[in-house]
Amino acid sequence: MLVSIDDERLIAGFTTKFGGVSSKEYESLNLATHVGDDPKKVSKNREILTSKISAKKLIFMEQIHSDLVYVVDDFNQKLPPCDGVITDIKGLALCVMVADCSPVLIYDKAQDKIAAIHAGRAGIVQKIISKSIEKMNSNPKNLSVIIGPNISKNCYEVKNLDLGEFNKFIKDSKFDMNLAIKYELEELGVDNYKFLNICSHCDDRFYSYRKSKVTGRFAGFIMLKG
Ligand SMILES: [Zn+2]
Q1: Are 220 and 103 in contact (CB under 8 A)?
Q2: Matching InterPro entries, A to Z (predicted)?
Q3: CATH superfamily to which 10-224 belongs
Q4: Helix crossing, 128-135 with 177-188: angle to 10°?
Q5: Which residues have CB less than 5 Å away from ligand 1 (the ion)?
Q6: How many angstroms separate the alpha carbon of residue 202 from the centre of ligand 1?
């Protein structure tokens, strides 16, 4: 686990492949049920994460590369498929699963509110980060944003794709996802952001869909303590 924030109010970070019970392509801490792994092992892996961060509950999204963002205000709420989730409930860990897409974690220190966002190419083009921040009703100056391991521009070839206003972040057929996210955050007025700058495709601690089609998913997690 890479822990980016762990203080009295908040824990936020990213899992790696290590420390779980899945085998073969999914070895070992695969947190996704939709990738062909044994569901019992995924449940066990999710239990391991729950206990490591002392969460009351983990929330996973059914991610669909959309711009849909929901607020969770009840512990037992069921989420429709979406790619962004917001809460102010303590002990509820918001999780985003990735293997090359960008896991984006947001903390609003003024409202004590958090968000987890799945921002791949499609999500970025649909402005899911802006839409999430808008839904949080946050003053951008109060936000801390962490962008976890994702595929770097050197490894992210996009041939003949039209990304609209984000085309300017394609150079030599390679899309610079982090630069696109940085641009969006700065446009919004967010200046407290941190990129881990770890390439999921190059770094063997992480799952990479581009590297191995059949693979697991690691997660970004964020939780208010208490
Ligand atoms: Zn790479």
Answers
A1: yes
A2: Cu_polyphenol_OxRdtase (IPR003730), Cu_polyphenol_OxRdtase_sf (IPR038371), Cytotoxic_necrot_fac-like_cat (IPR011324)
A3: CNF1/YfiH-like putative cysteine hydrolases (3.60.140.10)
A4: 30
A5: 152, 155, 199, 201-202
A6: 4
